């Protein structure tokens, strides 16, 4: 087995040894979906279409993608312990350069995000009647958002020297995008204008990813006429143009953020 794969497995094993944190990263977004379902049950509207819960089907993708950024913060503790703590001298004993050691660490972070996302998808599909649209589109969007979240974690790691600062910046980034995406409160309450419409459709990777997922399926007449400030509400019919456009934009964002993190990393290591 190659050294690269061994390092990846090493970080994944360390992550899954922290069972409490893993359970929380899965349980919290699931709990938020359940909370929204409970609230929706008090509204005099039939949310079931073709056996699927339309409310959960719109909420679940939003939290799936949002928590990719929270999941990326999970490995900060391991990385700061290895590269920023007083024990970092141990790395001089590894039979490879530090640069070779860092790359598989972040690959492990990316894989962890995807694994947790797939577990979340399976649970919501089986027990909450969530309709996920085209599964190929879903996996591609999940991989791209996870990649963007991981590259963002790389940048934060490179420009902070304390775990507390890294966590603070990570929370600001994650919650900031959720607010700008309309996931925390309906942005349409602030008015209907060009800026609000842009934020709800293209403003963040979260809105791009959520709209791509919701536009890839065949669930019709989802909440037609209801003015709710989450991307995808009122979007029920298949719109493959939106799906592919958003995936293309997400791919460009991933390349740009990845290039910035690579260049920044090389400069800080020289």
Walkthrough of the structure:
The chain is globular. Residues 220-236 have low confidence and may be disordered. β1 (48-49) and β2 (52-53) form a beta hairpin. The chain has one domain (3-269). The protein has ten helices and two strands, in the order ααββαααααααα. It has helices at residues 3-17, 19-40, 54-74, 76-83, 98-127, 135-158, 163-180, 194-202, 205-214, 240-269, and strands at 48-49, 52-53. It has a two-stranded antiparallel ribbon with strand order 1-2. The longest helix is centred in the middle third of the chain and has 30 residues, at 98-127. It starts with a helix and ends with a helix. It has 270 residues and is mainly alpha-helical.
Structure, briefly:
With 270 residues, the chain is mainly alpha-helical.
Largest sheet strand order: 1-2
What integer is the average pLDDT?
Answer: 82
Count, helices: 10
Which assembly state applies to the chains in this document?
Answer: single chain
Most strands sheet: 2 strands, antiparallel
β-strand number: 2
Structural class: mainly alpha
The H-and-E topology, N to C, reads as: HHEEHHHHHHHH
Low-confidence stretches: 220-236
- Gap between N and C termini, in Å? 30 Å
Task: Give the helix level as a range of percent.
Answer: 55-70%
Q: What fraction strand? A: under 5%
Tell me the Rg in angstroms: 20 Å
Tell me the overall shape: globular
Number of domains: 1
